[in-house]
């Protein structure tokens, strides 16, 4: 069972609450938790920014901060990774930096973020110049994109950077796999063009572009390009731009995204040995093998199974159903499409 601890107190000691719904994402890790309580009930620990730990039995599965309780009794916890959205890239002494270790440690020292950094992320400056408005989220997104990895805050509240898994932890049998899971052509690209600033002239910034892609995928699917803007990084070299674009390209490769996710019940996702998976242990960032599904998302890879990395998992305590999305899932509703368009 999921047991929240709020401001150092077990929630069950504070008052009654509905089953807890927990969402993990990859990248980022624990994303949110929600539950409901009697809206007429008030307690000093149930306040905005109160620290929250969600436990599954005695094991932590997420650290976060409580939002201001809703008038309808809804409680929402934001994962610690979300604190990076508004934290500037400053050292502990207050100077601008693009070195991940220094930026993280500076944010920790100021109290901007409350996760820990037990291991080095990178002690090298990611870029030499920038406009000074880089946030910690943007720095970590950019650094990991170039490195072909992803970042997040793990279930113990520690920031981490790692590659996607390469071995499946769970299997989805033939009778289940592929329900609603289709390649999304509008999320597909074979080449990425990056536009970046090379210098500043009398009339403003001087731009250049570089393109990275797969000719094999273009021959197989037809060429499709997309442009990414790197101007927020300030002045960078062509070599640095190519490195960043290549990292973005290699994280997903020249393949289609996914148009829908998977909504599975107990027994429809299993261990490699065929034992039904405990749904509360299936989380974003894990790899799942879809048996009997032809992989048509990449060029020249028509195997009879498809390995996918989970990009989002949402589970309500005690439920026999779990909602899963795949990394690189394409937006399919207006709100999601608009969100992607403005980012």
Plain-language structure description:
This protein is an alpha+beta fold and 343 residues long. The chain is built from 6 helices and 19 strands. Strands 1, 2, 3, 4, 5, 6, 7, 8, 9, 10, 16, 17, 18 and 19 form a 14-stranded mixed sheet that branches. A hairpin with a 4-residue loop joins β18 and β19. α2 packs antiparallel against α3 and α3 crosses α5. The longest helix is centred in the last third of the chain and has 15 residues. The protein is globular. The protein starts with a strand and ends with a helix. The C terminus is likely disordered.
Q: TL;DR of this structure?
A:
With 343 residues, the protein is of the alpha+beta class. It is 17% helix and 32% strand.
Distance between the termini: 37 Å
What structural category arises from helix and sheet content?
alpha+beta
Rounded to the nearest angstrom, the radius of gyration is: 22 Å
Q: Which oligomeric form is depicted?
A: single chain
The beta-strand count equals 19
Q: Which regions contain 5 or more consecutive residues with pLDDT less than 50?
A: 329-343
* Residue share in helix: 10-25%
Outline, from the CA principal axes? globular
Main beta-sheet annotation: 14 strands, mixed
